[in-house]
Amino acid sequence: MIQTECTIDVRYYETDLMGIVHHSNYIRYFEYGRIKMLEEIGLPISEIEGRGVMLPVVSTFCTYKTPSRMGETLRIISSVESMPMAKMKIKTRIVKESSQNPETLPAEIGATVAEGEVVIGFIKADTRRPCRIPDYAAEIMQKYF
User: Fold this and answer.
1) Chain centroid to CA 108: how far?
2) Percentage of the residues of the chain whose pLDDT score is greater than 90
3) Which uninterrupted H or E stretch holds 95?
4) In whole angstroms, what is the distance from residue 3 CA to residue 1 CA?
5) Residue 44 CA, distance from chain mean position
6) Domain assignment of residue 30, given as a range
7) In this predicted model, what pLDDT tens digit does every residue of 67-90 receive, in sequence order?
8) What's residue 18's pLDDT?
9) What is the CATH number of the domain that holds 50?
10) Which of 63, 77, 109, 145 stands 20 to 30 A from 89 (CA)?
11) Is 16 helix (H, G, I), strand (E, B) or coil?
12) Is 92 a residue whose pLDDT tops 90?
């Protein structure tokens, strides 16, 4: 299994009129975690794309648990539980790590803010046709399974 963690600070422009993170931004947080995960294991997206394979999003799913606000730091935990073939499923959990926002209750620290998954496919850049995970990427990922 692959599991990585990174943090992100909630920025003002990510919030709505209620002062909480707009729901659409959690999908961006999922992407941030996914990109960091691939970089950490030695598969930056720029390298994969440079070798002629693209990674389109096939589906997303997100459950919202607790609101986030500006001034909070979120921990993004991304994991891949099975070896990818033609698709890769990345599960993500976002946890409230810390806060400098006076509206944040102490009991909220450590709480799950959102969780879900993103499925990405592998396609050849020149034909836009589906393909399997490239051999070099499979070799890197195989050590985790």
Assistant:
1) 21
2) 97
3) strand 87-99
4) 6
5) 14
6) 2-142
7) 999 999 999 999 999 999 999 999
8) 92
9) 3.10.129.10
10) 109
11) coil
12) yes
Q: Count structural domains, the chain.
A: 1
Q: Can you tell me the distance from the alpha carbon of 28 to that of 3, in angstroms, rounded to the nearest whole number?
A: 18
AA identity, residue 57:
V
Instruction: Output phi, psi for 112, to 5 deg.
Output: -75, 125
Region of 132 please: left (phi>0), alpha (psi -120 to 50) or beta: beta
Is residue 105 predicted with pLDDT exceeding 90? Answer: no
Task: Tell me the CA end-to-end span of the chain in Å, nearest whole number.
Answer: 5
pLDDT value of residue 117: 98
Contacts of 7 (CB under 8 A, 6+ apart): 73, 74, 75, 76, 97
pLDDT at 50: 97
Report the SS3 class of residue 105.
Answer: coil
Q: Which residues, other chains included, contact 75 with Cβ-Cβ below 8 Å and sequence gap of 6+? A: 5, 6, 7, 94, 95, 96, 97
